[in-house]
Amino acid sequence: MTTLAITGGQVLLPDISVTRADVLIDQDGGEILEIGDGLAGDADETIDASGSLVTPGFVNGHSHVAMTLLRGYADDKPLDAWLQEDIFPTEAELTPEDVHVGAKLGLLEMIKSGTTAFADMYFMVPQIADAVEEAGLRARLGHGVITVASNDEEARADAQEGLEVAEALDGRADGRISTAFMPHSLTTVGSEYLEEFVPKARELGVPIHFHGNETANEVTPIVEERGVRPMAYAAERGMLEEGDFLAHGVHLDESEIGLLAEAGTSVIHCPASNMKLASGIAPVQRMLDAGVTVGIGTDGAASNNDLSMLDETRDAAMIGKLKDGDASAVDAESAVRMMTQGSADAIGLESGRLEEGAPADLAVIDLEQPHLTPHHDLVSHLAYATAAADVRHTICDGQVLMRDRDVLTLEEESVRTAAGEAAMALVERAEN
Ligand SMILES: CSC[C@H]1O[C@@H](n2cnc3c(O)ncnc32)[C@H](O)[C@@H]1O
Ligand SMILES: [Zn+2]
């Protein structure tokens, strides 16, 4: 067994308390062996965490990682106009190589900001899986199914691709990749396709992930045409089961929050995207109070415009208070819980907590910074004051992905150059 000790740091424990301890990892098994004092001597290798906070690697519960190529391309529009006028026409020009290099850029950014696992909905998912395999993160991936603008044959082929991707990629990258069936949303996938393909996804044993109640425009048509709220509509089509997770949940009423809590379906809160597209503010404290598992996600870099879970968590805590007019809503402890175990539980991963037997997915935060001084409360710092650049080391599945801010699994400069070139060529093709 090869072991690695992370020594000299303060450690964030699953009950969101912080204690002084070392963390001993089995690198072959990719799991935490022990958390305690004086473990450095037992290890084959050590990583210095003095003056640092050792946290679970952050879990990004909803992203479109290859959309880094469209960061800053189309801003300041609401969701429907943004998608229809700018994003969908440009995505129609994407090549598999674009998706591969865009994903690598996103994964580089994730590693640098302490994220070790994520859920992703996009096209050309095998190229994303290749990038995940190379970068060393953990992911739940799926092909985003959209049927609205298609004829029946195309729609069924797209949904079939969603199933095939879920089946083919599950377990890839030594088990770091898992999958889900991902209908894009309740208004962009026809009811007949949900009715046919969701049961087939159940046969595969994969969860369902979709954009749910992101804008008012996703609620009104369902209420008008079907006479029920969207979550009741989703439940009727078998899309709200334990292990399923939806992104956004901005426009959920009390009855829908109750349905989610009862079903064990989780919600991924994406505050930056919801603010930027002016979609609204999700009722996060109400969901937590009702017992819904809530995680945090960045959404794509084109509506955020970064992939930092630290930024996202700060946003979640801040707008949670605004939503309720209550400064105690979405407190620091809740926010930190959401960015780690909340997201991990939501997307069905065991990571998100530092304890014996848990996956060895960790981030080490440099506390010796002016904006992180003094150290009254390190959980407060994680929720409100830590920035991506404060992440020193990132470890996933026992492997060191970044050491002393040097990413080891991806060549930073070449990834940035290739992605920058691919993005400019993509836009050129789309506009001509
Ligand atoms: C079919 S793959 C995923 C699809 O979703 C688009 N997308 C990106 N951000 C959002 C969002 O906030 N709501 C809905 N859809 C979004 C992305 O561009 C892909 O086309
Ligand atoms: Zn999204």
Automatic annotation (TrEMBL):
Cofactor(s) needed by this chain: Zn(2+)
Domain of life: Archaea
Catalytic activity: S-methyl-5'-thioadenosine + H2O + H(+) = S-methyl-5'-thioinosine + NH4(+); S-adenosyl-L-homocysteine + H2O + H(+) = S-inosyl-L-homocysteine + NH4(+)
Keyword check for Zinc-finger: no
Record-listed substrate binding positions: E91, H184, E214, D299
SUPFAM superfamilies: Composite domain of metallo-dependent hydrolases, Metallo-dependent hydrolases
Amidohydrolase-related domain residues: 53-400
Gene Ontology terms, MF aspect: 5'-methylthioadenosine deaminase activity; metal ion binding; S-adenosylhomocysteine deaminase activity
Residues reported to bind Zn(2+): H62, H64, H211, D299
Residues making up the signal peptide according to the UniProt record: none
Top EC class for this record: hydrolase
Full protein name: 5-methylthioadenosine/S-adenosylhomocysteine deaminase
E.C. numbers: 3.5.4.28, 3.5.4.31
